[in-house]
Structures are given as structure tokens and as C-alpha cells.
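[Meeting: bench + compute handoff]

Bench side (C.D.) handed over the final construct sequence. Compute side (W.E.) agreed to return the predicted structure before the next meeting so the bench team could plan truncations. Sequence as handed over:
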Amino acid sequence: MTRGFVTLATGDDRYYIMAVRLLRSFRLFNPDVPFAILCDRENAYTAEFTDVVVIDNPTRSYLDKFLLLLKCPYDESIFIEPDCLVYRNLDFFWELLSGEYDFTSFGWNDGTLVFFQDPEYASQKFLNDPRAAVPLFNPGYLFVRNGETCRRIYRDAMEIIAQIKKDPKLNQDSELICKGSIRDDPVFFIAMALNGCLCNALPTDGKCVFLPGATKIMTASLSKGRLDADWHGEMTDCSILHFSSRRAREEGLYWQQSIVLDLIYKGAPRPLIRLAESRAARCAAGLYKKGTVGIRRRIRRD
């Protein structure tokens, strides 16, 4: 049985750049684990990945993510969104996600058991009131076990998408549509429910995944492999920082962490890495936004 991690990049080069940053941060702590990319073309960025899967007829939208159900190159795969950085070894993710379900993620099943126990009810409820039908679901981290279940989920997802497109009520609902595109998370969740797949509980203390803006980041050190945060209480030794939105990626912390990552890969002197990380710490504290010009000049000079 083969196992590996997977990410996705289609369209503009910025998505490939994010994917490579994810890969490089992952490699700091997971040097020997296969990591693949699903993409719409091969280029200099994809050359760094263990396996490259070029998809046919990409939409260059959220909908390309559904091809993970059909195209993952490993028997068991864990997908991570490209707008993430990794801060520790992720072997424990297999225990968290590779349970009885062939397709799953982190989420909340509380109060929605009827949704899973009666798929026909779930389908009708979704078509009549998508806001009431879709529980909370995190599509940034997905477990995929290749097989018939995932193929069925894909077929059901495509049917749901077709229904949304032709129904004026559904294709204007903010729970289903984001900036004119169909959101992937509610469609995944409905298709999962129709095939008897539940979400796994959110990771507990020490294994949590954080989103800037929802969480106070106290420590984010790629060189030390340390991510600490405060979300209704202190959480230490966390694993992944998910930047989750264009605004989050444009603020200082993502760029400072990217600079630190570049310095580590260039083999820069440790004092320069420490300087970059001290600025990253100030960004995490909200003391300033980008503030990267001086560091970038030193990178070029060195």
C-alpha cells in the first residue's frame, strides 16, 4: 500500500509558488514522505514534487479539488491546501484521518446525525434549504482512500453541482456560492453524507491547525519547528498554519515566514535567519504588516 501527501495548483503561478512553499516547509520535518501535486501543467515549481499529476480540462477554480477523489497517485492520500505552512512532523495525521471512512476531513457532526442517518432526507433538505443542511466542515485537509466509495462521492458531487447551477435559488445562495464560484466544502459534505462518510473530530491540544485572524499566533518558528497559538486558551506544539484567505496571505506573517523559509533553503547564516524570525514574531504580534524590504535586500546581497 502506498501513502503520501498531496496538494493542488491550477491557474496563476501564485498558486504554484504557494504549493512549493508548502512543500518546502513540509520537507523540513518530513524529509522522506512522498508529496504529490495535482496541477494543470508541469513547470519549474512542480519539478520539486515526488509525483506530478496533470489533470485534463481544469476549471482553475474550487471545482478542481473534486478531482482528488479520482486522481490521487497513492492508495491513501492526505490533501493539504497550498496556502499552508508546516511546522512539525505530520505522521500523526494518518492516525487522525485514516479510520473507517474512505473519504473524510476534520469537522463537526454534532446535531446533524439525521443528516447522515437518512441520506434521502439530507438530499431533499439541501435542495430546499442549503443553510440548514450543511454542517461545519474543513476542506483544507482531506483523507482519500482510492476506491469505489470515492468514485461514488465524485459522481454525487457532480450531480449536486449540476443541480446548483440550474436552480436559481441555489446558485445565488451565499452558503453555496463564493465570489461567483461554487464552494467546494458544502458539496463535499453532502456527497460524503450520501455515501455514509462522517467527519473526524478536530485535532486536540498539541495537534491543532490554526487560521490567522481566528487565532492569536504566539510563536511561529520554521527554523525551530515550533508553532504556538492562543485560541480560547494556550495551544502549544501545533502543526500547520493555514492562511486560508488572500487577505491573510497578503499580511506580514505569511511573507515573513516565506522569507525565513527561503533563507533556510539558501543555507543563509543563522544570524540572518534569526533576524528574519524576529521580524516574523513581530508580525505575529500584529506590530506591523509587511516590513520585508530590508530582509529582502540582504537576501539578494548574500
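W.E. noted at the follow-up: Residues 287-302 have pLDDT under 50 and may be disordered. C.D. will use this when planning the next construct.
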